[in-house]
Amino acid sequence: MVPKIVLLVALAAITVNARRAPHADYIESLFKANNGGRFSSDILEDSLLDAPGLVAKYGYPIEIHHVTTSDGYILEMHRIPHGRDEHNTRDPSKPIAFIMHGLLSSSADFIVKGPGNALAYVLAEAGYDVWLGNARGNYYSRDHLTLKPDSNINQNFWKFSWDEIGNFDLPAFIDYILETTGQSKLHYLGHSQGGTTFLVLNSLRPEYNEKFISFQGLAPASFMDNNDVSMFQSLAPFENVIESTAYLLGYGEVFGDRDFITEFKANYCGEGSIFTELCSSTITGLNEREFYNSTMVPLFLAHAPAGASIRQIAHYGQVIKFEAFRRYNHNSLTNLIVYGSRNPPPYDLSKVTAPSYLHYGASDKEVNYRDLHNLASKLPNVVGKYRIERETFNHYDFIWGIDARQVLYDKLITLMKDAESRL
């Protein structure tokens, strides 16, 4: 398939781009039900726009690119080629910053906080050509050459974990970016699962290590021996039945839309359900302890969760249950066919030789600092481990924390420039 590029320019893009935010209808109904409440009309307006619409509204150049993976998934990337206020001209020699989101998320994670605060804008103003990936199955990448994401007959579209995202999606993104820009290397910034998939890619396809100036791992998820998230802890023992049970119920994805969330809450969130912790921690909203601007909540909820496969969650459950960072465990027979062994092999992290900069928060429950140190001990080229100064910095502060620029993003740029000087 020939890649498609859509260029949106400033305010005109809002009318050209017909899509709305993933959960725009939900946010609009809440706003009307509360007569606006304490949220401004500007927040409502922003909450109804999809990620490219938001970028265009605030006067930044935005491009939409589509790429097709070798296994047929059609993925969407968003590009901010230059800044609005600084470094605001197109320059083919600009260093490239490719950002990859976490589980149940999308490119919007790095946009929603707005100019001056969100990571994508901060990087663009610092002189980077910014590309934002969207993994298969999320709101922006729900397409395939032959498979249908909304089919109730089977869930073949959804039979993937983050193993496939690392093994197929990332190579498609990276090859396309480098071919389009004519450059040979780029920076990779991955939050949570975005870090997982980087490790998957470079362990399974080590030739890609040479394509990275740096890996900026923002709480990269790998080992989870010390994971303290009740949702994962409660689901991990059932990793072998989560997916099959979901298929029997007619689901291959999780949290793709608010209708699904409403139905799931009504039918599967009762007391005694194995999904109780999943319901309380994921569906009910943002953790009150997070260091975020509460007026932005409608905007966050308009874009998250952005959808993922059941298998992605089950795969993390396997990491916890078996205390091993390894490939997806199908069953003995399928493993033998796919991997040549009855048990899935571990990812060979000794092959991840790209310069690695690992960032972590002391209060991160999802990626505990002990597990990050364990990861660092197995990577052969760790330039540094960087603890966020704020003691309460948690997993979601990497994307939503109101002080993320001051305590992290500005330092990221310094480290990225340092990595460039090492070439």
TrEMBL record:
<feature type="signal peptide">
    <location>
        <begin position="1"/>
        <end position="18"/>
    </location>
</feature>
<dbReference type="Pfam" id="PF04083">
    <property type="entry name" value="Abhydro_lipase"/>
</dbReference>
<protein>
    <recommendedName>
        <fullName>Lipase</fullName>
    </recommendedName>
</protein>
<keyword id="KW-0442">Lipid degradation</keyword>
<keyword id="KW-0443">Lipid metabolism</keyword>
<dbReference type="InterPro" id="IPR006693">
    <property type="entry name" value="AB_hydrolase_lipase"/>
</dbReference>
<dbReference type="InterPro" id="IPR025483">
    <property type="entry name" value="Lipase_euk"/>
</dbReference>
<comment type="similarity">
    <text>Belongs to the AB hydrolase superfamily. Lipase family.</text>
</comment>
<keyword id="KW-0732">Signal</keyword>
<feature type="active site" description="Nucleophile">
    <location>
        <position position="192"/>
    </location>
</feature>
<feature type="domain" description="Partial AB-hydrolase lipase">
    <location>
        <begin position="54"/>
        <end position="113"/>
    </location>
</feature>
<dbReference type="GO" id="GO:0016788">
    <property type="term" value="F:hydrolase activity, acting on ester bonds"/>
</dbReference>
<keyword id="KW-0378">Hydrolase</keyword>
<keyword id="KW-0325">Glycoprotein</keyword>
<feature type="active site" description="Charge relay system">
    <location>
        <position position="364"/>
    </location>
</feature>
<feature type="active site" description="Charge relay system">
    <location>
        <position position="395"/>
    </location>
</feature>
<dbReference type="GO" id="GO:0016042">
    <property type="term" value="P:lipid catabolic process"/>
</dbReference>
<dbReference type="InterPro" id="IPR029058">
    <property type="entry name" value="AB_hydrolase_fold"/>
</dbReference>
